[in-house]
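Most newcomers find our protein records easier to grasp once they have seen one. Nothing more is needed to start thinking about how sequence determines fold. Here is such a record, shown just as it appears in the course material:
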Amino acid sequence: MRQRWIFTFLGLIFLIAGQQAQSETGTAPFVAGFDRFARHDELESQTGGQLLISELSCVACHPSERSELQPKRGSRLTGAGNHLQQQWMREFLTSPQTTKAGTTMPDVLHGLSAENKQQAITALTAFLTAQESDYPVIKATGANPVPHQFWKKGNVTQGQELYHKLGCVACHAPDESYEPGETKISPTDKMLAQLDPEDIKELGLAAAMRPVNSVPHGNLPAKYTAKALTFFLLNPEQTRPAGRMPQLKLKAVEAADIAAYLLRDQTHSQPVEESARTADLVARGQQLFVELKCVNCHDVNHLKPKQFAQPLVKLNAAAATSCLHAAQKNMPAYPLDSQQQTAIEQALNGLRDQKPSTPQQQLDFQLLQLNCYACHERDKRGGVGINRKPYFETAAQVDLGDEGRIPPTLTGIGFKLQKKWLSKVLNGSGDIRFHMQARMPVFPKQQVSALPTAFEKVDGKTQLPDTRVFPEHHKLASSGRIMLETGCIQCHPIRGESMPGVVGTDLGDVTNRVHPAWFHAFLLDPASLKPRTRMPTFFPDGKSQNKGLLAGNVDQQIAALWGYLKAGSRQPLPEKILEAKSKNYELVPDKRPIVLRTFMQEAGTHAIAVGLPQKVHFAFDAEQVRPALAWKGRFLDAQGTWFIRFAPPADPLGSKAVLFPPGASVANLKNDQQPWPVYSPEAHEPQFRGYRVDANGIPTFLYRCGNVDIEDRFEATDKQTLKRRLTITGNQKSSDSEILWLRGLAGKTLKQLNPTTMQNQAGLQVSVSPELAKAGLLRKHDNQSDWIFPVPKAEQTTIEVTYQW
């Protein structure tokens, strides 16, 4: 049974506290850093106000030379016409805070009479709906399949799981109906959960135990179509260049799934009212867009701001009317609460006398702006909220403690990571924690390009090259290989190789990631740099446990580890890993077929791999009920399937792999032009019913489609082709609405080699009998061709298909 330990241990008091904290914000602008820290006096007096000035884009109208106050600005509206729904735009312009509670968008129309306001809304809506831009073309790769019109094929259930596992809930509200997997509570959280609120406050741990409020979504079904939200999730930077919403490196189908989940309550999208969009009305809307200073925050094609207000430093925080309160006509109105007003007033009053920010202050402020603290802790500030921790999981629920599932601390990160590596992490190419479900997001380059230097400047002690830290490391590499066996390889792979069951981060390129001085300090005393780490110390009290190696000299032993790891493939793998590799788990079907249930990239988590003595092998996807791929040569290595709880997908050991068309091989179609059905977990057919193995060891897969039962058998020929025999039994009589069809082949292009053989662009050839070929239909749908055959109407029919490549 799944558990949500947060509720079991923290009780209702923290849940109530979280609800109260959320309700206090009301319709006031929601700024994550201010809400989490400034509201609880955990920021310096002026910092909270400056954060609001930045996030409310005050400097878009009130110029300031202070770089940290530069405005977040609003979204790009160049494609608003086909990215946002028209009725939502009208409602948002009418009352931004009512339409989306917590929005940082002010009300710019509040000073108009009711009639004039409606006219302005009509004109602005006409102007914005006229702004259309093409959606980008998403190119498919082996790792990122892009089905035709993928945004229409999102799966709500899969989207819900992705939303709660990938990290979305670090900022946004989780679904109360979703239960995370079983996660062991860290000893620290278990201890804190047993304390009463007064004890927690006295220990200075109130911030760590305080529930974190959510960045509001607003009414997404009213705002977006499925296509618009899917493309937004794929690349938020396109419309939100400020980077407050980063991208999570989603595949096309993942973005479609999450969009389907977020829009699950949507009934239909609203059409654009073309008749209301006259040229004069669009022109009037453009004029208002500039006059009302919308253009100061939002990019729309070539439009530039023409009006600015007083410089920020000259503003009178005590003025009777302002954007902060009692806003007059032509002033944007922000519904700030009293705490926000006070914070901004304090920041404005201190601007004249404020000294330039220190590098530490600049760095901390940028982390607040980008809400890095939603996931990462730094100097005891932030980190995953106590009410969000259950949603951070490891793959396959491998128990690695909080260290294996919670994003790492940023404390001292400039001392730890080399700038080049930190840049790779920030641009999305530095993933090493593959056991962690949550993904490190990618922020716009212009927003984070200065962070590696800033971290190093603030955290970096004098960074010495490894020739200074470890002067003789290159001579000690062979000793380092021995040192690794004293505990390192029991938790960490080396250059992609590991002992059975090992899940930690790979140490193979650690010398390209971390500074040598940090490496030395961490190995001497891991807990001093990473509190509560699972990494043990191998040098207690600064003394080596291996007195026989390098005379027990600690510095030389650590230098030896660095030297070995830096040498890379020039040094052999540790002996224990080589011993594990020598235990051969390769499956060789030399006399009889081998059937293995496993997990494969192309055949999914319900793959059934079949190895045949003729050195032709295939994998059947039991979830989508289809043959998924075939290959020749060697079969599979079973080590990951048999011994490793968290293992990468099994890959074919052979060569000449070829993919079969996605989707089931048989389907009931209403007519011969109906597109071939796309797999969906909610679909009721075909239904997989297992498989049986004959006396020769060859499996026959069993499934049902409509009123017929299908037996699907594959065997290899001496010419290394696959011969497939489908036996279809049951009522196959065509009804008024449907007939059963078999799809022989599909692809971007199909070429007929002879009357009975077709080949796709990947080189997969399919041959059928002359009778079946005559009844076949070659058709094209949405840049995809397929070759389909009506199943003969008989109580039992056998169809043979031959595959070669």
Observations:
- DSSP finds 30 helices and 21 strands in the chain.
- The first strand starts at residue 377 and ends at 378.
- The chain has five domains: 5-74+309-353, 75-173+214-298, 365-458, 466-582, 586-804.
